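## tool: complex_structure
## caller: assistant
## args:
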Amino acid sequence: MKSNDVILQTATNIVLFIVLMFSVFIFFNGHHEPGGGFIGGLMTSSAVVLLLLAYDLETVKRVLPFDFKIVTAAGLLTAVATGMGSFLFGEPFLSQTYDYFTFPVLGELELATALLFDIGVYLVVIGITLTIIQTIGEDR
Amino acid sequence: MTNLIIWPVLIPLLTGILLLFAPKRVVFQRGLSTVSAAVLLVVNIFIVFTVQQQGIQTLQLGGWQPPFGIVLVTDMLAALLITAAAVVSLPILVFSIYSIGKERERFYFYAFYQFLIAGVMGAFITGDIFNLFVFFEVMLISSYILIVHGGTKKQLRESFKYVLVNVISSAFFVVGVAYLYAVTGTLNMAQLSERIGSLDTGAPILSVIAVLFLIVFGLKGALFPLYFWLPASYAAPPSPIAAIFGALLTKVGIYSIFRTYSMIFTHDTAFTHQLLGILAALTMIIGVIGAVAHQDVKKILVYNVIVAVGFVLFGVSTMTETGYMGAIFYLFHDIIIKGALFLMIGAMITVAGSTHLKEMGGLIKYHPRLGWMFFTAVMALVGVPPLSGFIGKLMLVQGGAEAGQYWIIAVMMASSLLVLYSMIRIFLKGFYGKIKLEKADQYGTTKGLLLPCAFLLTVSVLIGVGAEAVYPLAATAAETLYEPQIYIDAVLKE
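## result:
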């Protein structure tokens, strides 16, 4: 079936960036407020799903030439390695710490090691959801 | 407070993650998995000695004090079981290198094997009921993948049932955890034990929760009448996967019943433990009936897994220190001997090209070593002294007698004899008898398959002959379960 996707594609081109930026915002918003790696990852993958709906699998693979299974593995490794980072300081597994730093432009920010763990979660969620969606999508 | 006890979970977890990066490099996959399994074994043995010398080891994850955070607790029972699990995981891995096939190897077999081991290790060492659920899921999700891995028609059919049964039982698990939290206000096992132990009168709601947990763990551990899914689904996957399932997965369910029914649900033992004893006896009876009835070698062995569930849980239901010790000994022995038997059966099937006893016969002419190893393993399983099954059964009988459960002892003895009959039939029909397959007609060789079997059998014999050395370890483990105050003090009073 040949359908006309002009409106969907044009809208996607703009909406995609809004969704992606919001997903990054949600990701950093975590820790103290609603948000974090899991929901941020889901939102990023929903942006890619939108791209898949508007264009097709081949286009998306050209735009994002990652093997998402490797992304999953990298995420898992980041998360576990963050947990093991506490071994270096003689603290129990998964211990976390935080401190306040002053940045130019952004001002004072709280940086927590939990963020590193969350990056791992973020990558795992993106990797898993997109692997599943691509596998089902390829299967015709 | 030591990070040592997180390593049994981290080693397989990290290995699994690293294996995900290069799925197609089979040599790398094999090498790293084997090295990791060997390291895990060494670490776990070290943990056993540490626990023996320094007492119960705890680790508060993230530095959160119990009961607020999740705490990992390695008492002697957990240390022995993680060691037994590591002992079987290494040879089964080596066996699968020789028999699982390139196709499966290239599709994440080793990675999910490692994740499965990580889940099993975690379930044994956690000190928090909700965390137990999480590790159960880690283990189950890996097992869903392994049972369907390869995607043969039989596997697809059986894995569907397997997944369905386990998803439902996991849902019950969460419901049970929610009830428990609503009633007691904690999920930390030590605090649960403390709070429920201090009750004067038996609270009926706790008995309901206890039975709910018995249903959940009974489904995973194949307790009568919840064993129905097990025989078909464990017979479906290839031999090494069936071996790791048969040796470890039901044992995690049994361990959970052991832990909860010895330390936590002690408020109304007249009801709960009587029920457990009756169910254990029925499990033995149903198990041997299945084992005697079947002609398919895998099915015979799978039904023997169910019989062992009955034996161990009978020990738990006696509520005596000897009974506990027997149950621990038998559990330890059974993990190893079931792993060995599944591997030997796997080697038989490789040679005969069939799982049916009718298609085998006279295998001993060309495979004498396999034949006599199988014979020894059967003797160890049944408990001919001085092999490893004997001490466990002896203590189970003693514990049962102390508790006055003579009819269950009778059932146990009778079913032991029938276990012997069912297994020796494989030996007589499969290894002895008329030769069905000449050397040229055989479907495969046992090259590389015998060494893992020999390793497990040696460990099993050593446990039996060296029972003197294992005895104090089992005694320490039983003491902690019999007097939960030791466990509570180790976790809550730092």
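## assistant note: Chain B has a mean pLDDT of 90. Chain B touches chain A at residues 1, 3, 6, 10, 13-14, 17-18, 20-21, 23, 59-63 (CB under 8 Å). Handing back to user.
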